[in-house]
Fold this sequence. Notes:
The complex is a heterodimer. Chain A has helices at about 25-40, 45-55, 60-85, 90-115, 120-150, 185-200, 205-215, 220-250, 255-275, 280-300, and strands at about 10-15, 20-25, 175, 180-185, 310-315. By secondary structure, chain A is mainly alpha-helical. Chain A has one domain (about 5-150, about 165-300). In chain A, the strands form two sheets. In chain A, strands 1-2 form a two-stranded antiparallel ribbon. In chain A, strand 1 and strand 2 form a beta hairpin. In chain A, helix 3 (about 60-85) crosses helix 9 (about 255-275) and helix 7 runs antiparallel to helix 8 (about 220-250). By secondary structure, chain B is an alpha+beta fold. In chain B, helix 1 (about 1-35) crosses helix 6. The chains are: A mainly alpha, B alpha+beta. Strand 5 of chain A pairs antiparallel with strand 6 of chain B, so a sheet runs across the interface.
Amino acid sequence: MRRSLVDVGCMHFYLPVAEMSANILVFLAMGGAVGFLSGMFGVGGGFLMTPLLIFAGIPAAVAVGTETAQILAASVSGALAQWRRRNVDVKMGVVLLAGGLFGSVFGVQLVATLRRQGVFDFFVAACYVTFLGVIGMLMLIESTNTMRKARAGSIISGRRSGQHNWVHGLPLKMRFTRSKLYISAIPPLLLGVFVGLLAAIMGVGGGFIMVPAMIYLLRMPTSIVVGTSLFQIVFLTAATTVLHAAQNQNVDVVLAVLLMAGGVVGAQFGAAAGQRLKGEQLRFLLAAFILAVCARFAWQLIAKPADLYSLGAAGGA
Amino acid sequence: MVDLNQRHRLVAAMAALFIGLLALLATDASAQQRRKGPQPVPKEATSTREPDIKREQQPGAKESVEADVSARNIAVTSSFNGTEIVIFGAIDGSQQPSPESGYYDVIIVVEGVPGRVVVRRKNNVAGLWLNTASVAFDNVPSYYAVASTRPIDEVAPEEFRALHGIGLQHIKFTPAVGQSHPLSNEDLQDYRDAIIRLKRNSFLYKDSQYGVTFTGKSIFRASIVLPANVTVGPFDTRVYLFREEKLLSKFQVRLTLEREGLERHLHAFAFRLPTLYGFMTVAIAVAAGLIASTVFRKSAH
């Protein structure tokens, strides 16, 4: 156990599941900061919050389980708003969710196994380095290209639609009326499984995978992509929270409430700030954040630890 | 129309919050009921099986030692951030001329609940550091503090300290049976040392060589800090009275750390009824999301 930044200050509260005394203000501020960023960039924030919690000294498994509950709180209002605007393809959402639940059940079991082996922390760090590294680089390249083009004055072309790809050759075709699609159920199912797995292991909502995959792979109309993704996230994170609590006992409700409170307020200010920046500038900033978090995790993996030994209770680390 | 919609939203949000609170209250109540039932039993059991106070007098010794702690029961509430306990004692039949004379030596050992601990060792695999080896130890005390009037190797002989588990090097924990890998003695020692070092770094193990001070001819005291990350449970406090490397008297007193209040209920809830706890968390999260969207929508208009 290292002495971490949560020890500083006076407003202490004992976290019942993380089993540590923590400063309320630190976690409220953390929730606020990530809420601000997620409001500004229009992302869920799980892939920023979970790493921050781990860096602050919360055990990796508790960070993942607790953050799942916070993402649920952050997504509920958005999902509801999209639902009212009829921007949800329920049928597609249910197919994605079916896969998602399967992935989540498997992921939660995997977390339990990895904790017993004492390699969960390593696994989480490795997952984050991989995903954040790839996504951060892609976003960085795309946003710098767009900015350069915008400066050069050329017209930015939108996405080409109506083209067929390999997705359309698969069996088990279903009609998704709201998305105006007639495609195989296999790609959305597999996508759901993958996102469910990520949600359980990394403590993310999975929007950052789901949204691009819906647009480029499934070729759903952009207008209903966000709503369907949020719809899926709400039910997936709710199920994952219960599964984590039941299987791993790694959901700290006090910590979750602190993060929710901070996050809700931060998101309101973030959304206002985000309206003043251009899309490509936002994506460039977000890419920089993502790469910074990725670098921090990478450092944890390659730098020689101060102490090679660590202690864990019999159940897990 | 808009007004009506908003009112509906507000009502829905309030209802969700209300259900969440009800769930919390219901579980609190059930936790209390559970506590009411079995609670008196362990208390009686501890007083009959293992008394709070135990004394051992060496034959022939004129002096005997008695001690107590400033708080026998300490509550770990939501705002628990560690605590300091004072252990004070007196020597009956003290022949010490003055508090500073160093006529007697006192060693105080405070030991928390023993349990199993897994020590993991990181190794470099293809440039990455990950846990590859582990050893489980049994009877590792969650907390261990030793305080004395002088360095303990001057107070008591090595064999005595080894026998009674006095000093960090002599804490009696053993490798758990059925280790997956056979280990050499040196390796085992490395793992033992790692437990002591890591526990010391997190302030759970400590030794203070001059931690016990005589404040009178027969009265001594020591203060011991229990950090915020201490595990709850009974703590054994052993007080040894020495004169010229010879034990004269021993006294034992128990203190207990207990979880209290909301924190106790939430912890018990999370580990005893984990599925229900998961549903409660989900209810709270949904309610929080709905309330937030209602509040901020209203303020935006």
